């Protein structure tokens, strides 16, 4: 377990909103790297965790994602609750598309309920149900304006992760 | 017999008529007619340059130069085409400096150096030679060349050779070896040329290159080659690289927060003032306004 380097903080950052995660009024929180995973953890727990050796420690706090071997950062579904609070671009899907999405499929135009105005193309977005429950995140295939012209079977948002992964990838998720 | 006529008056009139055209300069003016240029080596009048009428003087002087140039052009040989009369411009006289440096001599190969000391000279040979076996002219070397002989359908086994040895295979291998040897020599020539250009011994250059490769491979692992197989005399190669350092796991939260806030400040910031404007949104606003008014 170690703190992130400056480079890692830049790569793995979720934008300016990282400030909200670090600068919390209730309790000091920090990011820690364990093996290749980045965890968001309260300082009290982090200090307790120093007594566990590197090989023995499986997980602490909330896993935000992992660094790939090529040095890119891959967000995990476990970070969804925090990301959803600060999301700039959102997509809401209709109830009939929820199950399809939760099984790992892309979001089709037919299932698209609402989308944030002026969302650009290839923009990371958070996906919600119509009742504002976050389901996962993805990348837009088309901008908001282009989405209007699409036919119903065309893909609007590419699937990245969804809460179904809590069941599917239970072993490697945390 | 007629009385001799006095033509001086007529000559005067004729001269006055062409007074403008005939310009005289003490030193003859040089021309480069291909560039339509005239170079006047005559000294200018210093007093006239300093006087009030400097403008007029310069105008008159340069008019004279231009007149001479035009006279010279009109003195050229002409040819008549459908589009009109054209003067045939001569070759260019002026020497222009070259834009690129003079190319360097290619570095000498080992063979060229040896040939120079022995006084061996290159002889011109014809590209094609007569092949008696087929009765055709074939290239001396290379593709379908005379000596390649890879298309032999039969090779007699030499007396002292192993009868079970594949002569065709042997031939192919020999060719392969010759090609490899040539490649090695080419590489060596290139290395020696590079070293001599730098002014170092080529053996030293090779040593430096190998040392660098060893250092690179040693420092490519996280442990700096601590667990790698040791090479002979490896202790002589010094490896100095910065080791990556991490902060202590339990640094004070306030210090860590400050550092990360500084990074957060940097990443979200638009690079310029204009970048802060959401162009897509602005365009959308303008368009929707237009459609409402229309």
Describe the structure.
- The complex is a heterodimer of chains A (174) and B (294).
- Chain A is an alpha+beta fold and 174 residues long.
- Chain A has 2 domains: 74 residues, Roll (Nuclear Transport Factor 2, Chain: A), CATH 3.10.450.220; 84 residues, PUA domain (Archaeosine Trna-guanine Transglycosylase, Chain: A, domain 4, Roll), CATH 2.30.130.
- Chain A is built from 7 helices and 11 strands.
- The longest helix of chain A has 8 residues.
- Chain A is elongated.
- The two termini of chain A are 15 Å apart.
- In chain A, 29% of the residues are buried.
- The radius of gyration of chain B is 43 Å and the shape is extended.
- In chain B, the strands form 3 sheets. In chain B, strands 1-2 form a two-stranded antiparallel ribbon.
- Among the domains of chain B are: 72 residues, no CATH class; 30 residues, no CATH class.
- Chain B contains 8 helices and 6 strands; from the N terminus they run αββααββαββαααα.
- In chain B, 43% of the residues lie in helices and 7% in strands.
- At the A-B interface, β1, α1, α2, β2 and α3 of A face α7 and α8 of B.
List the main descriptive attributes of the protein structure presented here.
heterodimer, A: 174 residues, alpha+beta, Archaeosine Trna-guanine Transglycosylase, Chain: A, domain 4, 5-stranded antiparallel β-sheet, 11 strands, B: 294 residues, mainly alpha, two-stranded antiparallel ribbon, two-stranded antiparallel sheet, 8 helices, 7% strand, extended, Ribosom_reg (chain B), nucleus (chain B), Ribosome biogenesis regulatory protein (chain B), ribosome biogenesis (chain B), Ribosomal_synth_fac_NIP7 (chain A)
């Amino acid at each position: 377990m170690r703190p992130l380097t400056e480079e890692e903080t830049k790569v793995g950052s979720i934008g300016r909103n990282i400030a909200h995660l670090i600068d919390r009024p209730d309790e000091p929180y920090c990011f820690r790297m364990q093996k290749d995973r980045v965890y968001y953890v309260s300082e009290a727990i982090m200090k307790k965790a120093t007594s566990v050796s590197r090989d023995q420690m499986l997980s602490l706090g909330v896993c935000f994602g992992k660094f790939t071997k090529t040095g890119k950062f891959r967000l995990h579904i476990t970070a969804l609750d925090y990301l959803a609070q600060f999301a700039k671009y959102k997509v809401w899907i209709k109830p009939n598309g929820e199950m399809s999405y939760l099984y790992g499929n892309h979001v089709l135009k037919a299932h698209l309920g609402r989308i944030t105005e002026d969302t650009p193309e290839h923009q990371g977005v958070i996906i919600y149900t119509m009742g504002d429950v976050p389901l996962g995140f993805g990348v837009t295939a088309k901008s908001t304006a282009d989405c209007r012209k699409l036919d119903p079977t065309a893909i609007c948002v590419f699937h990245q992760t969804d809460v179904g992964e809590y069941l599917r990838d239970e072993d490697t998720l945390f | 017999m007629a009385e001799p006529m006095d033509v001086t008056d007529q000559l005067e009139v004729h001269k006055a008529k062409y007074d403008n055209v005939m310009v005289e300069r003490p030193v003859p003016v040089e021309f480069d007619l291909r560039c339509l240029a005239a170079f006047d080596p005559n000294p200018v009048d210093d007093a006239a340059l300093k006087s009030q009428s400097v403008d007029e003087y310069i105008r008159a002087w340069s008019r004279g130069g231009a007149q001479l140039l035009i006279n010279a052009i009109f003195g050229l040989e002409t040819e008549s085409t459908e589009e009109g009369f054209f003067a045939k411009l001569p070759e260019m006289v002026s020497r222009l400096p070259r834009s690129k440096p003079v190319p360097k001599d290619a570095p000498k190969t080992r063979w060229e150096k040896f040939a120079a000391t022995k006084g061996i000279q290159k002889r011109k040979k014809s590209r094609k030679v007569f092949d008696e076996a087929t009765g055709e002219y074939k290239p001396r070397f290379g593709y379908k060349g005379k000596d390649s002989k890879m298309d032999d359908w039969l090779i007699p086994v030499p007396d002292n050779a192993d009868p079970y040895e594949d002569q065709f295979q042997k031939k192919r291998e020999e060719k392969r070896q010759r090609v490899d040897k040539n490649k090695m020599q080419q590489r060596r020539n290139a290395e020696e040329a590079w070293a001599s250009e730098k002014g170092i011994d080529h053996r030293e250059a090779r040593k430096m290159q190998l040392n660098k490769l060893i250092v690179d491979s040693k420092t490519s692992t996280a442990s700096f080659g601590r667990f790698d197989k040791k090479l002979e005399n490896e202790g002589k190669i010094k490896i100095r690289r910065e080791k990556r350092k991490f902060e202590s796991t339990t640094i004070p939260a306030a210090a860590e927060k400050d550092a990360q806030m500084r990074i957060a400040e940097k990443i979200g910031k638009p690079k310029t003032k204009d970048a802060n404007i959401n162009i897509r949104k602005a365009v959308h606003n303008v368009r929707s306004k237009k459609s409402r008014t229309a």
